[in-house]
Amino acid sequence: MTTNVMIVGVGGQGSLLASKLLGHVALLKGLDVKVSEVHGMSQRGGSVVTYVRFGDKVYSPIIDKGEADYVISFELLEAARQMEFLKPGGQVVVNSQTIDPMPVITGAMSYPEGLVEKMEASGAKVDAFDALSIAREAGSIKAANIVLMARFSKYFKDITEEEWLQALEACVPPKFLELNKKAFELGRNA
Q1: Are strands 47-55 and 2-10 parallel, antiparallel or unpaired?
Q2: Among 3, 27, 96, 130, which has the highest number of CB atoms less than 10 A from its own CB?
Q3: What is the pTM of this model?
Q4: Rg over CA atoms, the chain
């Protein structure tokens, strides 16, 4: 069995570190892992999508429409944009933060309302929470990615908190490790 995870956000939110963390923890469990990054216009605040697939044997890094078991999203609208990839009854873990895309900034459109309700109406299970505030409590809003991954970690009972922390130690530079460990702890216990 293969687990399919999409990690989505806006450039600069740390989705690539999140995918690296998830891939590393899957490797620690002895699983085959494939990661594919689709950067888009990430340096200009555009969408960033990463596919992480793990299991006994994974042949492709790509997730097709209707195949994602999980969508982890750093921003509400980015989660809503990826609903066609989520399998029926799939799980969304989303930061309730909103970042205005360019059409909203220019006034051409308004930010869509009721996105959590719309995702739930599509059949998705949605775990929406304020990862940004938890990251701020940990010491930096830049740790929202780790808070989000900590919340996501609770969906995997067979991966211990110690294994997640071991992966975190392998993926995060030493000077940011304590901050990120605190963010992980706060996110996991939120």
Answers
A1: antiparallel
A2: 3
A3: 0.91
A4: 16
